[in-house]
Amino acid sequence: MTTTASSRAHARPESTGTPAIEARGLTKKYGDFSAVRGIDFAVTRGEAFGLLGPNGAGKSTTMRMIAAVASRTTGELRVAGIDPEAEGPRVRARLGVVPQQDNLDEELSVRENIIMYGRYFGLPRRYLVTKVEELLEFAQLTHKARARVEDLSGGMKRRLTIARALVNEPEILLLDEPTTGLDPQARHVLWDRLFRLKEAGTTLVLTTHHMDEAEQLCDRLVVVDEGRIMAEGSPAGLIREHSTREVLELRFGMERNPELAAVLEEQLGDAVGFSHVEVLPDRLLVYAEQADHALEAIYAAGHKPMTSLVRRSSLEDVFLRLTGRSLID
Predict the structure, then answer these.
(1) What's phi and psi for 242, nearest 5 deg?
(2) What is the CATH number of the domain that holds 203?
């Protein structure tokens, strides 16, 4: 079986010292509003790079500048060594783009959607006849080749959107919230397809609100808030730097939680590996290197939570600590 991932392994460009994407002092303003405020980052060829942040953080704006569909206000940006503002068509020819909302043609069949998109790149029909079959197999949609898009499930539509974005064999694949709205099974199928692309050397750049997705897919990521980069590193590195190894979740009741948070902060303050207690509306989060030891100390002090849970610290803990827990529209 020949898949898109395997066929691209010999076709991808040789690795060079030039980053796949490089931004220096990148800004974007809309009137008096600054959507992106002087960010610096570089994406190595062949890596999976994530942009994480709450709504309005500047992620999609940054992706639009990379995709050569929005101009920057100041700063420098290079995609595959090319300035996207000066040579947009050259940049777009090297990119595959998977938008947050599927923009497939509902009236066309699955096969026709890929062929039509390939024609936008000027690809010859002889090439597309073979390429489409390869992409359908890669996306596990061969059995749906003649089906109309409107008859597909959400997961199938998402896989088709990704397959379509690969028709020009892009060096860089931009994915904006690739699994939004999908059920767990569909998400895992999509992750498998993306892993295959990554192993074949495709550079992946994605935004996501799913922290487990970022941990699974990203070699490295930046956390963005209010147009600025708050942190950068690998998922494991960010957890080590900004959180503890484990988290203890306790429920004492919504009325007692704030009062007991202050008590626990004082009682655990000198414990080895204890960091802090965070109050949520329905529970307390105790951050500690060994959460089971913290739980033993809490019981020994005479406190009896309604429920308790020890878990490992996650990227979501880092994300919420850096960007806050308040909802921003």
Answers:
(1) -115, 5
(2) 3.40.50.300
